[in-house]
């Protein structure tokens, strides 16, 4: 299991990097961090918001891939790239697009594996 000591150093003037050692289910620390970001950094994402009532197609992560690519031609500074366990990615998709109002054209979502499921299941 990843631990805090596994974090790599490095500075990037164009991005803020946060290491989140796993302390429970896959993605639980990330869901918590994104929820906190959506509550506290509204000004950062405000320029890239859309109507929060825009419908998101419901994806059954047990039978379909959650794979949406962003529209990089759309304006704005905010961009999110999320890949990982499908149900966690679906949760983050809802947090960002539906709850925080981020334009879904500004986010790449890739739920490419499922906890407890073998490949091809």
Automatic annotation (TrEMBL):
Organism whose genome encodes this protein: Propionibacterium cyclohexanicum
Annotated protein name in UniProt: Iron complex transport system ATP-binding protein
InterPro entries on file: FNR_nucleotide-bd (IPR039261), SIP_fam (IPR039374), SIP_rossman_dom (IPR007037)
Keywords of this entry: ATP-binding, Nucleotide-binding
Chain ranges of the SIP-like Rossmann fold domain: 12-116
Taxonomy, superkingdom: Bacteria
Statement: the UniProt record of this protein carries the keyword Nucleotide-binding: yes
GO molecular function, one term: ATP binding
One Pfam family hit: SIP
The keyword Nucleotide-binding is annotated on this UniProt entry: yes
């Amino acid at each position: 299991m990843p631990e805090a000591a596994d974090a790599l150093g490095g500075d990037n003037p164009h991005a803020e990097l946060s290491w989140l050692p796993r302390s429970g289910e896959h993605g639980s620390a990330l869901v918590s961090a994104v929820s906190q970001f959506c509550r506290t950094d509204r000004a950062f994402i405000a320029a890239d918001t859309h109507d929060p009532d825009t419908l998101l197609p419901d994806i059954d992560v047990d039978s379909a891939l959650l794979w949406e690519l962003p529209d990089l031609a759309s304006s704005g500074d905010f961009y999110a790239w999320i890949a990982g366990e499908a149900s966690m990615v679906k949760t983050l998709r809802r947090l960002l697009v539906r709850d925080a109002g981020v334009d879904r054209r500004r986010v790449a979502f890739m739920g490419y594996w499922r906890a407890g499921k073998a490949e091809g299941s």
